[in-house]
Design goal:
170 residues; single chain; 6 strands; alpha/beta
């Protein structure tokens, strides 16, 4: 076998082994991960205008490709368009693993937000946050969301939301 094939085979085996560990850790470490992520003071989450952010990040990736970020903390104001719904989530775990997030959070929900420009946008929701949102928020409610920019793809940034707070009045 040539060296390139051997290297690719070794890389595939390493990725397979790490994904098996990640699946176990996603159920073991969810609460700790969510606590560690949310313990950051809100000012550590970079405030972004979500409409500007979506447009800027959307242009960075060609169609059919993804660009993984390093779980950059961001906050933004939006309205809840649809409360969290359970969905099959696969790629989010790859992005979290590549970003070095440990312990792995449990992410089984997606919800839709509406930006101030009227753009409807999906976001991942960490499981503990999903329960909190479902109990305390209502559709069309205006909130500041705290989350992590995980990756970009052709439709824009993929964001995992971990908490919310009432918007500050200026």
């Amino acid at each position: 076998m040539n060296k390139v094939f051997k290297l690719l085979l070794l890389l595939a085996l390493v990725l397979f082994a790490t994904s098996a560990v990640a699946v176990k850790e996603q159920t073991d470490g969810t609460k700790e991960m969510q606590q560690a992520m949310v313990k950051q003071e809100p000012e550590e989450f970079k405030a972004v205008d979500i409409d500007t952010f979506i447009v800027a990040e959307k242009g960075k990736v060609p169609k059919g490709k993804k660009l993984i970020k390093m779980a950059e903390p961001i906050s933004f104001v939006a309205s809840i368009k649809r409360l969290p719904e359970q969905r099959d989530m696969n790629y989010v775990y790859t992005a979290l693993e590549v970003a070095g997030v440990h312990p792995m959070p449990k992410v089984e929900h997606r919800m839709f937000i509406e930006t101030s420009a009227g753009r409807i946008f999906p976001v991942y929701v960490e499981s503990n946050a999903a329960a909190k949102f479902s109990e305390n928020l209502h559709e069309d409610e205006h909130v500041e969301l705290l989350g992590y920019h995980l990756y970009n793809y052709a439709k824009g940034p993929a964001i995992m939301v971990v908490d919310y707070q009432r918007p500050k009045l200026h």
